[in-house]
Amino acid sequence: MNAHHPKAPAAGLPMPAGYWLLATRWGGRELSLLLPRRALTVNLLLLLLLALVATAALGLGSVRLGPAEVWHALWGEGPALHQLVVRELRLQRVLAGIATGAAFALSGCLMQTLARNRLATPGIIGIDNAATAFAVASVVGTGIALAPPAMSLVGATTATVLAFGLAGGSGTRGYRFIIAGLGIGAIAGAVTQLMLSRVAIDLANAAFPWTVGSLNGRSPGATLLLGVGLVVGLALSLRLARTLQLVQLADPVSIGLGVSLRRVRRQGLALSVLLTGLAVAVAGPVGLVALLGPEIARLLCRHRGVPLLASALAGALIMLLADLLGRLLLAPLEIPVGIVTAVAGSPYLLWMLLHPSSRSQP
After folding, report:
1. How far apart are CA 46 and CA 187, in angstroms?
2. Which regions span the lipid bilayer (predicted)?
3. Could you tell me the pTM of the whole model?
């Protein structure tokens, strides 16, 4: 839900507009909770759309299945061919798409909130490219023994530390941090291309999907690790939700309300780096999802809060829909999901750059 969680009104006070009140008794005590109607409705709508697109992704392809056949196959019923197609060939890809999209978008929402700038996504400030460079280094055999997921986390952390160091005292605020990240991303991208140009063609082909973003043939182990990291990251993010909402205020105001800005930014950035690194380890750099997911969530929620859960759901929906389009548009040829999201998201990014008011704080 949206990150705005006001306390329930005391007895006799009027109900605030736009909220539902849930009340119950537990152990002789009256417990109540206010739920924002629009945020709850948006999250349920996004969840429903995600289920519909996931069903379509499981059913569409060279072997086409209806929704009923898909659900029967998921439960281990129906013809063996249907079960093979759904459970063995397509389910892992769908799960990878949901997890990576949610992780990228949640990471972007955290980064934008901390920087109070909608351009400050992990992809824009170089975290994606650095994580990709380190992951490719492990794939092409540069003498580094760590697995791609671990290496991508190292790369994401390295990019963040360098961006902070180059930004000096400005931290995540202002365009110095973004410009430093752009430079780091450009260097990381050049290093990736250099590594690919100096290895055998077979190794370069194996590492190529990491450079453009793809959900084809993803490792179940990496997807499982991302799923665990996503659950933990989402839980910790929701725990920070009220504080993140206060961080959007001016620094003196936030400090006056008792917020430890250094601690909150450190925790938020750590979660963003973790989610980005794990997502890149599965799908490669699909960073524009981190830009589009939070934007769609804010547009739908129409609230000044931090739409963490809505961002994650919107990101998962974007990633899954982009992968489905990439599989179907030029079938039997496949367009990597990173290219589809780049084509869809680049015009919006250009619009943001040409309209300074759109870059204001989330």
Report:
1. 37
2. 39-61, 94-115, 127-147, 153-170, 177-201, 221-241, 269-293, 305-325, 337-354
3. 0.84
